[in-house]
Amino acid sequence: NPVLAGLGLVKKYGSTVALDGVDVSVGARDSLAIMGPSGSGKSTLLHSLAGIVRPDSGTVLLRGEAIDKLSEERLSALRRKRFGFVFQFGQLLPELPAEENVALPLMLEGVPRRQAVERARRWFAPLGLDGLEHRRPGQLSGGQAQRVAIARALAVEPDVVFADEPTGALDQTTSTEVVRLLTSVTREQGAALVMVTHDADVAAHCDRVLQVRDGRISNYTQFTVA
Ligand code: ADP
Ligand code: ADP
């Protein structure tokens, strides 16, 4: 059973058809890369699956529950608790040490500060961040900052991690290192991963690659034997 499924997703902006009937699903420990030219609908697909954009028709099921029909309030609570997000850059709060950036989503869920920081610290070793707990984002390299962002996305132990161009601001060597950790640590945590990327080498680290063109799936590759 898939953790997350989008069924018959259609989204229009005026006369622009951003999504034109897309079906997609991901299982636990499954990783999916979304690729395609600029304007093809990648962001709209990611945002629809993540409950940020509401499709005009079709539905998004999280463990079988239709989330696109939830109230805005319930949907944002669900996003905080069940989803983790990694963006291209600039998502860490510059005044806070790395461990507190990672702890923040837990504190927003009501976990007391000390406990949240303790839980946050557990992600540092698996992500190769040992010793960097007290650094502020400005004192981290680009790759280190993205690994802290991955830790933050995983802190609440989400069902799904969404990554929007997570290596877009990194050089090739650092990109490879970051996507390897993103896919492996997300899998170990038991979450599904949905990632938008322009980089075919980065996408190749995912189990499956979906090509989007003009709001439709134009190609679909499965790398691993199920
Ligand atoms: P991609 O991520 O592949 O670049 P998008 O999903 O951002 O593509 O956009 C798909 C199409 O929908 C594009 O033509 C884009 O201009 C349009 N679009 C996306 N979001 C909006 C919006 N909020 N308002 C109007 N048009 C939008
Ligand atoms: P990406 O580089 O990830 O494809 P974009 O730069 O296309 O992102 O879009 C960034 C944001 O702007 C998205 O939330 C998208 O929905 C919105 N957007 C994209 N195209 C348009 C548009 N033509 N009008 C309004 N908003 C848009």
Automatic annotation (TrEMBL):
Transmembrane segments: none annotated. Keywords: ATP-binding, Nucleotide-binding, Transport. Residues 4-225 form the ABC transporter domain. InterPro entries: AAA+_ATPase, ABC_transporter-like_ATP-bd, ABC_transporter-like_CS, ABC_transpr_LolD-like, MacB-like_ATP-bd, P-loop_NTPase. GO terms for molecular function: ATP binding. Gene3D superfamilies: P-loop containing nucleotide triphosphate hydrolases. SMART domains: AAA. The keyword Transport applies. PANTHER family: ABC TRANSPORTER RELATED, IMPORT ATP-BINDING PROTEIN. This is ABC transporter ATP-binding protein.
